[in-house]
Design goal:
Elements (H helix, E strand, L loop, with lengths): L1 H21 L5 H7 L3 H31 L4 H21 L3 H19 L1
Length: 116
């Protein structure tokens, strides 16, 4: 049950990121979340929407795995690995904050699945 909750939390985080990047990027909320200037947010809103779509695919994969139940464990692991890699890459290339917001929750969910 704990592993399922952690996987759902990781999916929810990515759905939230989808909303921030696709719909709120150019708003005060989006700019504050990503520490962006208004000009930069306006100039990069299409790129951010694209990133948001990818975060939505990660969430969809995790939710699909949960929906499959026991048969979905390999699907969940695949998408958690994708999240973990994306989180580490983002932490190295963009902001260390991504390590804590994205990679560590994915790692925690993976560990919980392994010890269940």
């Amino acid at each position: 049950m704990f592993a399922t909750i952690l996987v759902a939390v990781v999916a929810a985080i990515h759905l939230y990121i989808l909303v921030l990047e696709m719909f709120l990027w150019n708003t005060k909320t989006g700019r504050k979340a990503f520490n962006l200037s208004a000009d930069f947010a306006r100039e990069t809103r299409v790129l951010a929407a694209n990133q948001g779509m990818y975060n939505g695919f990660l969430a969809a994969g995790l939710l699909w795995g949960l929906w499959l139940g026991e048969r979905g464990i390999s699907v969940i692991f695949f998408f958690l690995i994708c999240v973990l890699i994306a989180g580490v890459f983002g932490a190295v290339t963009a902001s260390r904050k991504i390590l804590y917001v994205q990679a560590l929750p994915a790692l925690a969910a993976m560990l919980a699945l392994l010890i269940r």
